[in-house]
Amino acid sequence: MRGGGRAVGVLTQDYEDTQDEKDPGDDEASDPQGLVVYGQQGGGSLVRTGVTQLKAGSFLRLPSLHLLLFTSNSFSVIEDDAFAGLSHLQYLFIEDNEIGSISKNALRGLRSLTHLDLRGNQFQCDCRVLWLLQWMSTVNASVGTGACASPSTLAHMQLHHLDPKMFKCRAIELSWFQTVGESALGVESFSYQGEPHVVLAQPFAGRCLILTWDYGLQRFRPEEELSAPSVVSCKPLVLGQRLFMLAARLWGGSQLWARPSPGLRLAPTQTLAPRRLLRPNDAELLWLDGQPCFVVADASKAGSTTLLCRDGPGFYPRQSLHAWHRDTDAEALELDGRPHLLLASASQRPVLFHWVGGRFERRTDIPEAEDVYATRHFRAGGDVFLCLTRYIGDSMVMRWDGSMFRLLQQLPSRGAHVFQPLLIARDQLAILGSDFAFSQVFHLEPDKGFLEPLQELGPPALVAPRAFAHITMSGRYFLFAACFKGPTQIYQLHELDLSA
């Protein structure tokens, strides 16, 4: 026994043979699990017994104990609430045992504890000790700690020398939740009248399908559908009580739908730029000089990407952009406090435009970025990042350096049509969809500044994914995956505590 004084010394005598020769003045208590504790003067001890674990409620019959001593036993497990009922316990000695870890709530209820001694134990120094490190830094008690037995990099290090920040004990995973029939090319989330909604662009079904949450069934269900044959993008815009929906269509002309007020159904109100938008491939919403605008990327050689801004009851062409370049994707972003627009095309590197004097002007292109099908941006730690999708070769992550985007990371991506970043709760994710393999989910590691693999998305496997969107409902986080050759799949994000 290390330290102690007279009061402790009384309890350090060896009780190994006291089953037959027990002092009549000693107290004895046992629980249904067979644990026997001998004690004097408000204390109890277990020395060199055959007990291998302390189970919940082991000391409920000894509520007045002030001191407990466990020395040279073979304890390997101490369960949650093992010391329940010991509200008066002040001294707890668990020395020279075989404890590799202690359950997270093992010490729960020890309100009077002033001294804990764990010396002589060899701990597994992983996420299972994180709670103990955090507890030691906040508790008003003196603690003698054991040492690490593993991993090898921490072997023999004392627990009180460990930094809790070195342990990454929170994990997340996406698991399947629901399937929505019919294939889709696009998916967007929006909030209307305080309720989250999702709209799917379903070209083969010929509609924009709006989904809402069914509180009774705890599932997503269809709320309304808009007739839109060969639709490639359904882009929502909420202005107070009014809801607009832009339906970009490959054939038959793109349309604007409107709902003037809640309770009414969406109705077509306008055909959008029929002479310019001949083969739309993408549509984005952006705000310019306080007004909402749409930009529609056109992939035909005879058409042109067009900026449409609100003017009175409708949206009308404000500017033609990037004619003759077969644009496949548009991305609106803000750089240096000003609106910017990034266009990807089948014929050249992505081009960055900035808003100057009421129109977009070319600013620069993106170096080392040939054959980019689509671009998406995200912000993290004050920086702006781009995810660039490439069908052949490596998709790329770039970072804005104040004058242009510079290559940061490359990810193998054969068969990819979408590389989309999503901030879900506090986690910055990026999902790389593939037509030939499992779609990969990456997680941005703040300490490293790189995307690290998190998981493969599925089962069920996604079949030709084209777009992702997330939605929050009653504190739950859902990911929608729109697939071109299969049904839309919905996944739920779960947070895991690895220190439990």
Explain what you see:
By secondary structure, the chain is an all-beta fold. It has a domain at 36-167: Leucine-rich repeat, LRR (right-handed beta-alpha superhelix) (Alpha-Beta Horseshoe). It has 2 helices and 39 strands. A hairpin with a 5-residue loop joins strand 26 (338-345) and strand 27 (351-356). The longest helix is centred in the N-terminal third of the chain and has 9 residues, at 130-138. It is elongated and about 90 Å long. The two termini are 31 Å apart.
Would you spell out the secondary-structure blueprint of this structure?
Blueprint lengths: L5 H4 L17 E4 L5 E4 L3 E5 L5 E2 L12 E5 L5 E2 L12 E5 L19 E3 L4 E3 L5 H9 L3 E3 L2 E4 L19 E11 L5 E7 L2 E8 L4 E8 L4 E9 L3 E9 L2 E8 L4 E6 L7 E6 L7 E9 L2 E8 L6 E7 L2 E8 L5 E9 L2 E8 L5 E6 L2 E7 L8 E7 L2 E7 L4 E7 L4 E8 L5 E7 L2 E7 L5 E7 L4 E8 L7 E9 L2 E8 L4 E10 L3
Parallel strand pairs: 3-5, 4-6, 5-7, 7-8, 8-10, 9-11
Antiparallel strand pairs: 1-2, 12-39, 13-14, 14-15, 15-16, 17-18, 18-19, 19-20, 21-22, 22-23, 23-24, 25-26, 26-27, 27-28, 29-30, 30-31, 31-32, 33-34, 34-35, 35-36, 37-38, 38-39
